[in-house]
Structures are given as structure tokens and as C-alpha cells.
Amino acid sequence: QVEALLRSTRFVGGHAQRSPRGAESAAMECCLPTVCLGCGTGLGLMAAQWTKKATPAAKKNPPQQLRELCAEAVEKIGTADAQWLNSIILVMWPRIDKYVQELVRDSIEPSINNALPGLLKGSFHFTEVKLGQAAPKFGPLLVRSLGDDIVIDMGVDVTTELVVSMTMAKVPIGAKSLIFRGVLSIVLKSKAPKPPFFGGIEIYFMNPPQVDLDFTGIADVADYAVVRAAIRSSIAGVVGGKVVLPHRIVVDMNEEDFEDILDLQYPIPLGIMRLTVLSGKGLLACDKPLIMGKPSSDPYVIVQAAGGPWQTPTLKATLDPVWTKDNTFNLVLYEKQQEVNLQIYDEDWGGDDKMGEVKSLKLGEYMASSGGKPVERTVPVEDEGTLCISTLWLAMSNTGPHETNGGPQLYLSTKLWRIAGLRTGLTPPFTMYVEVTDDFKVASGASYPKVDTIVDPKLQKVCVELSKKGMKIEEISQVVDLEDKQVSFIVDESSDPVKAKQVAQASMAQRHATHPEFNEVVELLLPWTPKVQEASVTFTLKDKGGKVVASTSTVPIKDVIAASAQSAEKDGVNGPFNFGKAASLEASMRTRWLRPL
Description:
The protein has 13 helices and 26 strands. With 597 residues, it is of the alpha+beta class. Strands 10, 13, 16, 17, 18, 21, 24, 25 and 26 form a nine-stranded antiparallel beta sheet that branches. A hairpin with a 2-residue loop joins strand 1 and strand 2. It is globular and about 95 Å long. It starts with a helix and ends with a strand.
């Protein structure tokens, strides 16, 4: 099917069209980039090809065209533009099915149990999960430039029949279909002078995809809305935590350039959108009086965007709320096409009622210069009433400080790789805290042990055969170019798999306790107050129980700023840093000023 399509299809302006020319020229035009996808070169060739052949209709202003395309892709996704990819996904579907089953068991089920209220916690279990017959649809596709990077935006629509059985408190629940829709971005990062002509690949959704399930059984009853909400939010949370900005999947394809895997996974953002929820007017009344009085509500607003959600305080008994504190949020933007949703709820002891929503505000439209002052806007609420918000765009800058109308003035990015040489007897996983004064602190995710490289089965067989011939572990290691411990494990596993597995697990646990890995970037937004100006960046390590096991004050924040100003591309201050008596922390830091436009 793929071969037949390639012989009769050509790409014009990002859209697949039937070729009026002979099969030979069409095949030459399409097969080369598609066959080369495995090494990454094909993506670059296709992007260059689409850009070169753009039709006059495709030469509209790129951001405007992208907004139209993204909106179309979310609501109604065509399939003609990427039929070759649809065919590939159909072949891969059994593998995807197996991966989803593991994801449901290991991540989604625990997340749902954590989201359930009170006595229902821990009572939810998946008994069977199968994706069934898939109907994947990809397209339309749009190629755009982002500085020196090439971005391919692609609509994704997966609607499939499910075989899902669940129980909650021993009550059966089912789901018969899954809908997954969104716009996936594939970014070819860091131009390079030789194939594949770029240094890395990033894959992400700019905005959370639409995820919906059609339930059967008791969860289809209105009284179990809390169960449905917990399941949907947990699925969205797991997806968002892996591939919705600021999270992304990355591949480093050029180990010789200055960008490492963490630079690709955690790039410096475009800037900060400072959003304030000011007031509401004429909102929906959800609370009806029992005897006398007017209907009212106790409204609060949830701000849904990358890095969120955030929530305003609840205001009692009003349809015209005015928020004056804890109502300003700093939204980190990596793409101009990122969106924010504002959901309004009525707080109620029996379960909060949704009062309305402001959907898909395109934050890129609020990045225009405002003279450094917040701009107020009134936006209609979907069900009833309006919300008044203000926005102030703070762009990244190498010079500063700048007055930001009470907002953050400095962006600090800390790259955490690993710790080496911790004393024995500590209990992982560990959490690293990065602090600048007592007022500004951010925590890393849980540490993990370094995983040994998977050895090719053929090479494993060589190790075993050489061992049978009487060669020592050290000698085999030199022949096959592996570490002694890897060869020892391979040889032991061939004779006693159970014992070898136990030894490997014990070795990994020991490695985690003394050489934990983080491979993460954490960020802080700071004001440029006198207290911050005199502060240093401090690292504190806590064990599984929250006990402080090591702490160090590394570099004054002024020195990080000075070092970062010397290079816009590389890290400002690089470790390793002394961490306790014998341990060292491999980390680096860099800063950017925030400048209002």
C-alpha cells in the first residue's frame, strides 16, 4: 500500500497530491525522503521539499496559516495528506497496543487511584485493556521555520474501539471507545553541515490533546461523574507529563555540537506570559436559594496551560467576582501557538459545578508590545457572562535588570545530571532542591539508578562461548570491549539466570544509593531584590524519607549572571561542585533577564 501510494503521490506545499507525471519521477520524488526516515535525513529532505514547492495559497503569513491549520486539525482532521504514515501506524499498532497496556498498568491506574476521593482511593483496577481495531488518521501537515529549526505540525486523530474492563470497589466499569485528537509538532533542531543536517529531534504537543472515553456500566451514570473525571484527568495527566509542553520526547543526533540531550529536552523558553484574572461579570448562578434570596455562586477560576494548572481563590456568593490577591500566574511559553483555557467553577461541598469556560486563548496574540504595562481584555465565557484578564509579555534578554511591573525579573535554569560518591547507607530515591534565599526553591523529580547499556544478543553469545573455552572475565572484556561487570553478568545469567538477576538488582540498588542520576532541568523565576542580589545558589539533597543528607552553597547568583552574559548558547557556570565530604555534583546553571515589551 505504501509503495503504491509513493508511486502516485507528490508533496506540494505540505499536502499530498496525485502526480500528473510518470510513476518513475513521482517515486524518485517521494521514496527517497520516506525511505530515509530511519536515519532522520528523510525528515529534512521532506521539509525542504515541501517548503520549496509551496503553492501561492500556502504562502500566507506562517503564524496565521498555522493557527488556521491547528484549529482545523483539532476539530476535523483529514487523512489524504499523510496516508503513507497511516499505513505505517497500522503495521505498528500491535506494538502500540502492548505499550499502552503497560502504560495503563504502571502509570494511569495509580494516578486514577490518587485522584479518587476518600474511601474510593485504591479501589480502582484495570482487569483488561485492548485497543481493538485502530483507525489512526494523520494530517494535514504544515512545515514552518522557527529560527534555524524546521517544524512539522501534524494533526493526529485516533478513534478506536476499546476492550477495557475496570472495577471500582468491586463494581464493574467499562469503556467501549477512545478518542484522541491534537496537533503534534516534530522539530528538527540545530542545523548541521552534514547528514542528517540537524542535531536533534523534538516531539511534542503544543497544547493538551483532546482525550475522551465512552463509558459503559455504572460509570455511565451521572452520579459517577467524579469517577469519569478522575479517569479522564489521569489519562490526560500521564500524556501531558510525557509529551505536552514543557515535556517532550527528544533524540540527540549530534554528540559533537554544544547542545546535549538536556538542552533539547529543556530548551530556554521564549518568555513568560504574566496573566492576571481580574474579575467576572454576569456569571452563571449554580446555587439556588432554599427559601428567599437570589441565585448565586461561589466562583473560582482554574488556569489550564503548560506548566499548570493554577487556581484563583474562591469568592463567596457573587456572580460578579473581583479577585485582588493570588490571581496572577506566570505562564512559560515555548511556542507562540500555545493556548490557555480558563475554567470557572462553583465551589460546593457536594462537588464543584462547572460555571463555564473560556477556551483556547492563543497566547501568541498577546505578545505584542504594550509599553511595559499590562493590557486588560474582556473575554466571553462559553455558557454565560464574561471574564476580565490582563496580560504582560516578558521576553528573554541577555541584558538587565528591567522593571516588570511587580513580576519576576530573572530566569534561572539549573541542569542536574548526577551525583557521584555519596556515602553508603543512604536510602534512595533522592530529591534535589535548588534554592536562592529561603523564599525561592524548586525540587527535582525523584532520582533513579543508571541503567546498564543493553548488549546485543550476538555479542552476549560470544561472551558465553569464550567463557566456556576457559577465558577469564577480564580477557573477554578486552575482546568484546565491554565492562567487566557486564561480561560477568552475561556469563552468570547463562548458567544461573535467577542468581544473576538477584546480583544485578543488588548492584543497581547500590549504584542508586551512591551514584544517583537526575538528568533534569529545574527553573526558578526570581525578582531582583537586594536579598536575591546577595544570594548564592544552594543545592540540598533529601532522601526517600525527606531527611537532608547533603547540602552545599555553590556560586553567587551575580557570578552566574556574569558568566551567562558571555555566551547566549552555552551554560554559564559548570560543575562539578563539591557535595559533602567526598561526593561531587555534576550540574550547570545559566540565567536570562526578563524584559517587558
